[in-house]
């Protein structure tokens, strides 16, 4: 009997080469798809300036329980995801497992943290209240202004730039091809580039972050840019060493975080503004981040300031991502991908949600159901009855 060879799935065009696009390209190429990854600057954008927190618990907020569940499932997939990536790329994936502490720098801030601890306790999440002395025993770099906090050992972190390098290497090794061009629009059978070229495909995935809404009428008004500024610092001889854990803080009601990197590096973030597609860091943003970080970690005043940058988080109206079929383009569950697909709108959680997003996209490409937890991210929850016929002004009001 002659052995039958499996038929390759087909050609897959992915628009956007940030953490989500690269992750999907790697895994889809491994699954046999002929992948073309379209991005004028792969590995840039918000993925390049991210803090890299994998923190569903310390990002939790009342009313966002579905996002907490989605993030928790994805976090559970991260160790296997990182191990597989390191093997595929023959390079480190950047996962850090030291955990997270959340601290309060004033009496009012401590009350907010107590509220968070009570909320998480009601949800059955394991967090420990710590005194200021206990916090400084864990992290000696925490300063005297800190009144207390929480230990959340399960919330992890990843070095975003190490991760992006590994994903690009893994995708390339798996056979994905990079198209260094800007996409103008997508359809179910391909992508039109800004230079007029048409790339035909059997399936299309939009993973273009904050720029996704312009690529298809069904995404109009569903994704918006949310600016965030970060600083990259480096420890200098004589200064207090950086913390080993991620330190999240509330300083006079303002959030700030510090995420350690190998070699004495520290990422400080992140401001949040609704200013369109502006990616210039501002003097005020840098000042605020340094002021609040120094309240929590006084030693950073002696660190070297290496970089100030801003990125655009892809926000959605309800803070849940968009993972599924673009509204108005059919439904999943047939013999193949219904397309075009979308995987964007991850907001603050692009790094965290990469593993579960990839699992959902691979299921959709195979014509299968997505994991149960991902059903809440179906884009049709936000879509009007006929999204492709909305006028721009109507879409913007959503």
Give an overview in words:
The protein is α+β, with helices and mostly antiparallel strands. The chain has 2 domains: 11-49 and 161-223 and 317-396, FAD/NAD(P)-binding domain; 100-153 and 225-315, D-Amino Acid Oxidase, subunit A, domain 2 (D-Amino Acid Oxidase, Chain A, domain 2), CATH 3.30.9. It has 8 helices and 20 strands. It has helices at residues 19-30, 65-89, 107-122, 132-138, 160-174, 283-296, 350-365, 392-396, and strands at 11-15, 34-38, 53-54, 95-96, 100-104, 128-131, 148-152, 156-158, 177-179, 183-187, 190-193, 198-200, 203-206, 224-234, 246-251, 254-261, 265-269, 304-315, 322-325, 341-344. Strands 6-7-5-15-16-17-14-18 form an 8-stranded mixed sheet, with helices on both faces. Strands 9-2-1-13-20-19 form a 6-stranded mixed sheet, covered by helices on one side. Helix 1 (19-30) runs parallel beside helix 7 and helix 2 (65-89) packs across helix 7 (350-365). It is globular and about 60 Å long.
Q: Separation of termini?
A: 60 Å
Assign the CATH topology of the largest domain.
FAD/NAD(P)-binding domain
What strand line-up does the widest sheet have?
6-7-5-15-16-17-14-18
The best one-word shape is globular
The CATH architecture of the largest domain would be 3-Layer(bba) Sandwich
Evaluate the radius of gyration: 21 Å
Low-confidence runs (pLDDT<50, min 5 residues)? 1-5, 331-335, 385-398
């Amino acid at each position: 009997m002659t052995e039958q060879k499996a038929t390759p799935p087909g050609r897959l065009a992915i628009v956007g080469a940030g953490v989500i696009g690269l992750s999907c390209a790697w895994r889809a190429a491994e699954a046999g798809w002929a992948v073309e990854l379209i991005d004028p600057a792969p590995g840039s954008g918000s993925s390049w300036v991210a803090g890299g927190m994998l923190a569903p618990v310390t990002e939790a907020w009342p009313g966002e329980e579905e996002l907490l569940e989605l993030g928790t499932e994805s976090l559970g997939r991260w160790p296997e995801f990182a191990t597989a990536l390191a093997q595929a790329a023959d390079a480190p994936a950047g996962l850090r497992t030291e955990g997270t502490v959340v601290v309060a720098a004033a009496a009012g801030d401590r009350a907010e943290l107590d509220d968070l601890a009570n909320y998480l306790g009601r949800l059955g999440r394991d967090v420990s209240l710590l005194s200021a002395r206990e916090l400084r025993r864990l992290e000696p770099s925490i300063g005297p202004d800190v009144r207390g906090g929480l230990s959340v050992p399960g919330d992890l972190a990843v070095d975003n730039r190490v991760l992006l390098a590994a994903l690009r290497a893994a995708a390339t090794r798996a056979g994905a091809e990079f198209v260094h061009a800007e996409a103008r629009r997508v359809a179910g059978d391909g992508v039109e580039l800004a230079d007029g070229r048409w790339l035909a495909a059997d399936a299309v995935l939009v993973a273009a972050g904050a720029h996704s809404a312009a690529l298809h009428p069904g995404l109009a008004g569903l994704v918006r840019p949310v600016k965030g500024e970060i600083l990259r610092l480096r420890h200098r001889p004589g200064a207090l060493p950086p913390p080993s854990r991620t330190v999240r803080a509330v300083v006079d009601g303002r959030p700030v975080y510090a995420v350690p990197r190998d070699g004495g590096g520290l990422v400080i973030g992140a401001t949040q503004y609704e200013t369109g597609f502006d990616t210039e860091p501002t003097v005020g943003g840098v000042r605020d981040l340094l002021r609040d970080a120094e309240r929590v970690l006084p030693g950073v005043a002696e660190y070297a300031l290496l970089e100030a940058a801003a990125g655009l988080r892809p926000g959605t109206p309800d803070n849940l991502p968009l993972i599924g079929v673009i509204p108005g383009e059919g439904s999943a569950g047939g013999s193949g991908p219904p397309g075009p697909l979308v995987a964007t709108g991850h907001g603050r959680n692009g790094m965290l949600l990469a593993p579960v997003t990839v699992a959902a996209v691979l299921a959709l490409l195979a014509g299968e159901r997505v994991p149960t937890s991902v059903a809440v991210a179906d884009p049709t929850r936000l879509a009007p009855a006929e999204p492709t016929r909305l006028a721009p002004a109507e879409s913007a009001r959503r």
